Amino acid sequence: MKKIKSDRCMEGNIMDMPPGYEKVDGVETLYVQILQPTDFWGVTTKIQPPLARTGGAAESGCYVCLPTGERLCAVDYHSDIDGWRKQILLGAEGMGLLTGEITGEDIVTSDGRTYGLSECLTEFY
Question: What is the pLDDT of residue 122?
């Protein structure tokens, strides 16, 4: 995994792993394709009434850039883990946005693709 600080995905130095690589009790991370500034808000509020009853969701300050050039934004959520996971996944699906989840050494996308994290770049902001 390569870590960079920039406004686009490009080569950088090998550094830390992205959010979700190491599991944290009480927090889960999904990756969501954010194409417009309003997409995060849309993904978290598209499904009404909200499925999550407690807790919250926030961007984690990191993108995973797939070898195809697609950028997925890390979104952490806590408390009602199942509710937030469903809220984000269904919201993204309803907006036609790709999602992903880190599983072991890979990121698996909602359309069934799997990439090794070593093939991807991280972008911290």
Answer: 93
Domain span holding position 101: 9-124
Asked whether 60 and 29 are in contact (CB, 8 A), the reply is yes
For 26, the token pair is 């009480």
Residue 17 banded pLDDT, cuts 50, 70, 90: confident
First to last CA, the chain: 16
List, in order, residues 6 or more apart from 116 with CB less than 8 Å away. 105, 106
3-state helix, strand, coil in the chain (%, to 5): 20, 40, 40
Q: Inform me whether the pLDDT recorded for 62 exceeds 60.
A: yes
In a domain, 2, yes or no: no
Q: Is residue 4 part of a domain?
A: no
Could you tell me if residue 109 is inside a domain?
yes
Distance separating alpha carbons of residues 115 and 20, to the nearest angstrom: 15
Taking all residues of the chain, what is their mean pLDDT, rounded to a whole number?
Answer: 90
